[in-house]
Amino acid sequence: MTTLLALDTATEACSVALLHDGQVLSHYEVIPRLHAQRLLPMIQTLLSEAGVALSAVDALAFGRGPGAFTGVRIAVGVVQGLAFALERPVLPVSTLATIAQRAYREQGAEQVAAAIDARMNEVYWGCYRAQQGEMQLAGSEAVLPPEQVSLPRGSEGQWFGAGTGWGYGARLAVQPSASDATLLPHALDLLALAGFAWQRGEAVEADQAQPIYLRDNVATPKAPR
């Protein structure tokens, strides 16, 4: 049986989840700015509760962004450190896809427009459709003003809006059948997506655990004088 460990710190939420012997355990907290202090203790507690040694983990999944710059870096740093030490592969998972997967799990939404508040009057945006229990990207992920978001071409049926980006309300160029601006990514859903990716053989080496910001100018180092 596969043992997968998933972690996410890309937004205000900090969460970890473990799949072992077909059983799933998870911890989830909304703790802005405390991710760095809480993440490793959460992992240790989870493994202890499951009675699983870290060395038993086959692969590590993480929220690769888009999201808060610092939060995404924390996840990448921790997962790389663990993966290098354990000599295990990693599974990068989109934060937007994770939110869509949570909307599918909790709301039964088959079509989800996921949006994260990207500050600077922009949102991180991605549209997803359920395919055999997995929320899959329709189109591409992007960062853009709320007024410029759109659904995939030829879209029909109802769309559910999920994520903090929906706090922009009427400014968003898409009006869903329903929305939840409080929905944050949960490692439980990241774990589900990682399971599909693992089955497809999409795990990569630890040094390929790279953050995805969608913005090219985030924390760009200044040119030397």
From TrEMBL:
Note the SUPFAM superfamilies from the entry: Actin-like ATPase domain
Has the keyword Protease been applied to this entry? Answer: no
Q: Sorted alphabetically, which Gene3D superfamilies does this protein's record hold?
A: 3.30.420.40
Q: The Gcp-like domain covers which part of the protein?
A: 31-152
Localized where? Cytoplasm
Query: Which Pfam families does the record cross-reference, listed alphabetically?
Result: TsaD
Sequence intervals crossing the membrane: none
Q: Which GO terms describe its biological process?
A: tRNA threonylcarbamoyladenosine modification
One Gene Ontology CC term in the entry? cytosol
Coiled coil (UniProt feature): none
Query: What keywords are assigned to this protein?
Result: Cytoplasm, tRNA processing
Is Cytoplasm given among the entry's keywords? yes
InterPro entries with a match to the protein in the record: ATPase_NBD, Gcp-like_dom, T6A_TsaB
Concerning its family, UniProt says: Belongs to the KAE1 / TsaD family. TsaB subfamily.
Name of the protein in its database record: tRNA threonylcarbamoyladenosine biosynthesis protein TsaB
Q: Which organism is it from?
A: Stutzerimonas xanthomarina DSM 18231
The root-end lineage is: Bacteria, Pseudomonadati, Pseudomonadota, Gammaproteobacteria, Pseudomonadales
